[in-house]
Amino acid sequence: MPEGVTKDGKEAKAKAKESPKRRTNLAKIKVELLDGSPMELEADRKIRGHELLSKVCDSLNLVEKDYFGLLYEDRGDPRVWIDLEKRVSKMLKHEPWVVRFAVKFYPPEPTQLQEELTRYQLVLAIRKDLLEGRLPCSTVTHALLASYLLQSELGDYEETENGAGLCKQLKLVPPSSCTPELEEKVVELHKTHRGQTPAEAELNYLENAKKLAMYGVDLHPAKDSENVDITLGVCSSGLLVHREKLRINRFAWPKILKISYKRHNFYVKLRPGEFEQFESTVGFKLANHRAAKKLWKTCVEHHTFFRLMSPEPATRSTLFPRLGSRFHYSGRTHYESRAAPPNRSQPHFARTLSSRRLSSRSADGQ
C-alpha cells in the first residue's frame, strides 16, 4: 500500500474522532438578566470569572460593575457565585454554560450609585428578591414600592389604568400578596407620584427598599450551639442571626476579631464588650464543610468590599485566616468604586420591567 494512502487514512480517522464541539475554542453561554430576559454569549473556553462578568456588564453598558456578580447552580445549591479569579470552565462543566446576573453587594445608601442605569439594575434586583420571597415586607410597603414601579414604567396615572391587570402583568408583588385591596392601594399611591421622572421614581423606590430589615442580606441556614435552627445573614454592616424570622443577634464588623471555619463548623471571635474582660467565640453548625466555606467566603467578600479602602494582600495576616483556602477578595472595594466616578454622560437605556417589552439579547464572542 502506498505510503500516502496510509497517512491520509489516519488523518481521516482522526478527523472523524474529533468532536464537533472541540473544533472551536468558543463556549456558548446563557445569561438570565435581572429583568428576566435572556442574553446569549460566546466566549473563549479559558475565560475567567471577572472577564465573563465584564463581558455581561459591557453588553448592558454598565460601568459600575463592582456591585454585581454571576450566580450558577452547584450540587443542588442554586445560589453559588462564580469565582472571579478562576476559569469558568472549572465551575461549569456542561454547555451551554448557564448563569444568572445578580447584585452581589447591595449599597447601604443607593444614592451612592453614580449612574441611573446602575440604580435601575438595583431596582430590578430588589423586585426579584421581593417576588422570590428573599426580602419580606408588609402589605403597606409592597403597595408603596409597586406604585413607584408603575410610575417608572408607565409615567403619570391615567384614568384608563387597570390596577388589577397591571399588578399581575408587571409582577409588581408576589402572587400571594396580590389581593384586590392591595391593587386598589397601588393605584391610589400611583396617583400621588404625578410628575416624577422614571429616575426619580426609582430613587424613591430604593430609598424605601433600603429600610427593609432583610435588604441586601445574604442568608445561610445553620444551627446554634443548642442545635436550634437559625439563619445567618451577611450584609454591609456585619453578620446577623435570625431565629424564626426574628433577628436575635447582630455582630457588626468592628466587633468581630476573627472569622473561621473547620469542617462544618463556623466560628466568630468577638472583641470584649464594655463590661467584659476577655474575648469570646461563638460557634455555629452548617450543613456541611462546603456550606461553612461558602459562608466564610461571603464574609470575606462583604468585609473587604464595605470596610476596607483596598483589598488586603493575600499573604498578609488578616481578619479572616485562610485555613487552607487560597481565596481572597481581589476586586475593587466600595471605597475604590465611589472614588472613580464614570467618565461619561448618563447613558440612555430602555426600561424593560414590563413583560410585554422583554426581548432576547445576544452578543458575539471575542
TrEMBL record:
Native source organism of the sequence: Euphydryas editha (Edith's checkerspot)
Repeat listed as a keyword: no
One function term, GO molecular function aspect: cytoskeletal protein binding
InterPro entries according to UniProt: Band_41_domain, Ez/rad/moesin-like, FA, FERM/acyl-CoA-bd_prot_sf, FERM_2, FERM_central, FERM_CS, FERM_domain
Keyword hit for Phosphoprotein: yes
Subcellular location: Cell junction, Adherens junction; Cell projection, Rhabdomere
Cellular component per GO, a single term: rhabdomere
A Pfam family reported for this protein in Swiss-Prot or TrEMBL: FERM_N
Name by which UniProt lists this protein: Moesin/ezrin/radixin homolog 1
Segments forming domain FERM: 27-310
Chief place where the protein resides: other
Composition skew (Basic and acidic residues), residue ranges: 1-21
Region named Disordered: 1-23, 335-366
Keywords: Cell junction, Phosphoprotein
Ranges of biased composition (kind: Low complexity): 353-366
GO biological process, one term: animal organ morphogenesis
Lineage: superkingdom: Eukaryota
SMART domains, sorted: B41, FA, FERM_C
